[in-house]
């Protein structure tokens, strides 16, 4: 096994991407590397991504009926079919200068109660964000996409609906905007590129395959790359990991590493864009479980070597793991999460008195039972 932190040759490799990272896809396109995405649903075909793209398209084309009908009442804004039909009918009037926003303003004057308030809020937010993107107030397009998804309630809607996947996909779309200018022109280019995301790019016979771990169960490949062995990706971001849930995540990691017949590469990012903001990450607890004799460090930048010192200079003598009972400051508790950062292990504990804490393992004593 090899741990690799920078650029590697991707030819004739299988790529397990823990979140089907759009940044990885863009790099494949940029370097003209043939690739294929495994799985039944492409990223831009997902419901939540289509919703965000539809909102963004309205800022470019205010007469886009398909996009308007998709998002005008999602999440629910109290606008019934009759109201929406009136907006479309108004747009279809003989006045060629009308667009969906102007038509909505005509209709809203005759509405009452929640429907009027909701449509007023929608139109006011649209005007505000439209002005911002035209003035170029954003550093990059990621900031604009974040304002759109948060302001119109799409992110919160999917966070409640399926917080483990759909909202993370939206976060990934937000982060993908960091490479585009925060201007109207940047938005146009972004939307053009999003519509040019084929399932297969280049020569299929020699292409790199991309998939989630679930998508490759039962398959094997000569060489495999696992992208992002980090806390929050593997194991997944969960408020309080139980020993059983951690074991499920560990089995998933086992599926990933056993897809490789000859060579396995694992990448770890110590910084990652999250909703367009560059944040520090933490090394997955699963990395510590791999004995150092079983892998080679291919490359670690000099300024990052301290982050990996723990894995080569000392061992975790306490062997504290998720689900273990502990005592801290005289209070009994349980370990609910574990990761590695700044050269050593950190633990999240939940105490019987209801308090929670994140601290180094040196402050905790392990108990056989509680």
TrEMBL record:
User: Pfam families given for it?
Assistant: UvrD_C
Protein name according to UniProt? DNA 3'-5' helicase II
Record bears the keyword ATP-binding = yes
The uppermost taxa in this organism's lineage are: Bacteria, Pseudomonadati, Spirochaetota, Spirochaetia, Spirochaetales
What's a BP term from Gene Ontology annotated to this protein?
recombinational repair
Please provide, alphabetically and separated by semicolons, the GO molecular function terms listed in this UniProt record: 3'-5' DNA helicase activity; ATP binding; DNA binding; hydrolase activity
Give the superkingdom in one word: Bacteria
Keywords, alphabetical = ATP-binding, Helicase, Hydrolase, Nucleotide-binding
What GO terms fall under cellular component here?
Answer: cytosol
- Does this UniProt record's set of keywords contain Nucleotide-binding? yes
> Where in this chain does the record put each UvrD-like helicase C-terminal domain?
1-218
């Amino acid at each position: 096994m090899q741990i690799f932190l920078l650029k590697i040759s991707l030819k004739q490799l299988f790529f397990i991407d823990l979140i089907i990272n759009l940044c990885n896809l863009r790099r494949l396109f940029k370097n003209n590397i043939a690739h294929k995405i495994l799985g039944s649903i492409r990223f831009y075909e997902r419901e939540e991504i289509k919703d965000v793209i539809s909102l963004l398209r309205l800022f470019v084309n205010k007469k886009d009926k398909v996009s308007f009908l998709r998002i005008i009442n999602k999440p629910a804004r109290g606008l019934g079919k009759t109201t929406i039909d009136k907006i479309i009918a108004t747009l279809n009037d003989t006045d060629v200068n009308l667009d969906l926003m102007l038509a909505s303003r005509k209709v809203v004057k005759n509405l009452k109660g929640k429907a009027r308030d909701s449509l007023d809020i929608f139109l006011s937010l649209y005007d505000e964000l439209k002005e911002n993107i035209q003035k170029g107030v954003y550093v990059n397009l990621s900031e604009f996409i974040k304002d759109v998804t948060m302001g119109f309630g799409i992110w919160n809607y999917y966070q409640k609906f399926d917080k483990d996947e759909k909202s993370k996909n939206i976060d990934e779309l937000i982060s993908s905007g960091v490479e585009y200018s925060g201007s109207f022109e940047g938005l146009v280019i972004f939307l053009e590129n999003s519509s040019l995301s084929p399932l297969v790019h280049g020569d299929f016979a020699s292409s790199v395959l991309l998939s989630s771990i679930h998508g490759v169960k039962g398959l094997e490949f000569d060489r495999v790359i696992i992208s992002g062995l980090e806390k929050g990706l593997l194991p997944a971001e969960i408020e309080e990991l139980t020993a059983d849930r951690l074991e499920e995540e560990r089995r998933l990691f086992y599926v990933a590493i056993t897809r490789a017949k000859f060579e396995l590469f694992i990448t770890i990012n110590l910084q990652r864009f999250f909703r367009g903001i560059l944040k520090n990450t933490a090394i997955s607890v699963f990395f510590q479980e791999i004995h150092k004799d079983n892998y080679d460090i291919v490359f670690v930048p000099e300024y990052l070597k301290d982050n990996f010192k723990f894995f080569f200079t000392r061992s975790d003598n306490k062997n504290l793991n998720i689900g273990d009972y502990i005592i801290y400051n005289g209070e009994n508790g349980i370990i609910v999460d574990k990761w590695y950062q700044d050269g050593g292990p950190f633990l999240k504990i939940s105490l019987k008195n209801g308090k929670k804490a994140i601290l180094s393992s040196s402050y905790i004593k392990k108990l056989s039972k509680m």
